[in-house]
Amino acid sequence: LALMLILSLDAVFVGMESQITAYIDSTGADVFVAQSGVQNMHMASSALPASTARLVERVEGVSEVTPIRYVANTISVEEREFIAYVIGVPRGAGMGRPRSVVEGTAEIGAGDAILDGPAARAAAAVGDTVRILGRDFRVAGMSRGLGSIFSSIAVVPIDEFPTYGNPDGVSFLLVRGAPGTSADALAARIERDVADVTATTRVTFGRQEIKVINDMATDIVAIMNLVGFVIGLAVMALTVYTATVARRSEYGLLKALGARTSALCRSVLAQAAITVALGLLAGVAFTLLVAIAAPRLDVQLALALNAASIAKAGAVYLLIVALAAVLPIVQIAGIDPAVVFRRKVA
């Protein structure tokens, strides 16, 4: 149960991080180009002239460039308001559109929008009207996996995206490299050949996004995760310690009959290792079941269990459980075997 607690909380934390970069990861871009100094989307403002796209297209190794506009705003569904990231992409663009459309179409025409997240669940069906950026859009499709429990995603045609006084401006450029081109090398070339831009690989761009969000919003989740971890450690240690103490007289009798303290320690450590292994199996199975069930129950909460989480939990728990189990054996090591034997006989 303790391992189920910590693995589930850790999976929620990792899942939230994966949701933060879901759109970035789904764009298909190798490099994100923004105005100088900008390396993420959330809480950032980037403005590039349309001519920048043409300059980037000329850089060696560039296969495709897609300009997008971006702003944090709201989506109105009937009387409800949803926080959303609104993204404008060219019609028929090869990058930037949702790939996991579950209803409707991924193609956006005049007056169309594709929704993801809480706003998509609130809209009754494809064809409904929602209000985005001060005007009405028709829901052309609904995707899954890009929004989070807190925010929605809306993708609209870039030519229907407000220009805010800069009709030829864009926010970011999504750049795809030619086959065999390294993303790091491509980003370096773009920054070298195009003035006043920052080119960031998709992986680095996602990491920066996670860092910004973590600094702002996930401290509470991190604290919950830490508290769950500590509680799990305490429960495991207390359980194993109590189980070992309950058999202390049996270990003492074995010592009186000639068993070495090292042999008793190996026996207790082996039992601790088996306990942790079985607990990990049960915890992983439970967490995977929850991760599979959540989307089917239409819960906008992603759980992501990775090898690092399992290794961390297993290693720390094994260490704590081993210490809790060996502590009573250390006490037994100081007992006179003859005294233990006489007490047993009596």
Number of strands: 12
The termini sit apart by: 41 Å
The overall pLDDT average reads: 80
- In DSSP terms (H or I, runs of 4 or more residues), the helix count works out at 11
Strand fraction: 15-25%
Question: Strand order of the main beta sheet, please?
Answer: 3-4-9-6-8-7
Q: Give the structural class.
A: alpha+beta
Indicate the percent of residues in helices: 40-55%
Please characterize this protein's 3D structure.
With 346 residues, the chain is of the alpha+beta class. It is built from 11 helices and 12 strands. The chain has a 6-stranded mixed barrel with strand order 3-4-9-6-8-7. It has a two-stranded antiparallel ribbon with strand order 2-10. A hairpin with a 2-residue loop joins β3 and β4. α8 packs across α11. It is elongated, with a radius of gyration of 28 Å. The model has no long low-confidence stretch (mean pLDDT 80).
SSE topology:
Layout: H1 2-20, H2 22-26, E1 31-35, E2 48-49, H3 51-57, E3 62-77, E4 80-89, E5 101-104, E6 112-116, H4 118-122, E7 129-132, E8 135-143, E9 152-157, E10 169-170, E11 172-177, H5 183-193, E12 197-201, H6 202-216, H7 219-246, H8 248-256, H9 261-296, H10 307-333, H11 337-345
Parallel strand pairs: 4-9, 6-8
Antiparallel strand pairs: 1-11, 1-12, 2-10, 3-4, 3-7, 3-11, 5-8, 6-9, 7-8
Helix pairs in contact: 1-7, 1-9, 7-10, 8-10, 8-11, 9-10
